[in-house]
Design brief:
64% of the residues lie in helices and 15% in strands. With 145 residues, the chain is of the alpha+beta class.
Length: 145
């Protein structure tokens, strides 16, 4: 259940934030809110604006990734709150950006960070990878004891 709750919350927050940015902020318009810098960018590529123009292809990749995670979860080899949380963030982020890519051919980014301009789905993907690494370390430590 944790997996689904996280994935749905990530998708909802991501899509709502992108809708608000697309509706109320012009492209390349910058502003600061609560000390965080924002700029409305439309990215038709992937991370770091690589491979511009292939947004829909990356949308298909997101769909295949989500199918793979559901298949993997069905095998039941990895269980627990940590892996469910990790996969929930990964699937929520993939679906959030996948929706944009398949519907619009590009992703709405707006949160400025030292590594570029991101969105909530990107941050969810980062959290999912971080939790996956923690899960791997914890699993390894359990095996070597």
């Amino acid at each position: 259940m944790l997996f689904y709750v996280i994935a749905i919350l990530v998708i909802g927050a991501d899509q709502l934030s992108k809708y608000l940015i697309r509706t109320y902020i012009d492209i390349n318009e910058a502003f600061t809110l609560w000390g965080i810098q924002f700029t409305h960018i439309e990215n038709s590529g992937m991370a770091g604006s690589l491979f511009q123009g292939y947004g829909r292809l990356f949308g298909v990749v997101a769909v295949l990734f989500v199918i793979g995670v559901f298949y993997f979860r069905r095998t039941g080899e990895m269980k627990g709150a940590l892996i469910d949380s990790s996969l929930g963030f990964l699937v929520g982020g993939a679906i959030g950006n996948g929706i944009d890519r398949l519907l619009f051919g590009q992703v709405t980014d707006f949160i400025i960070r030292s590594g570029g301009v991101l969105n909530l789905a990107d941050h969810a993907l980062e959290m999912g990878v971080f939790l996956l690494i923690i899960y791997g370390i914890v699993s390894w430590l359990k095996k070597v004891r």
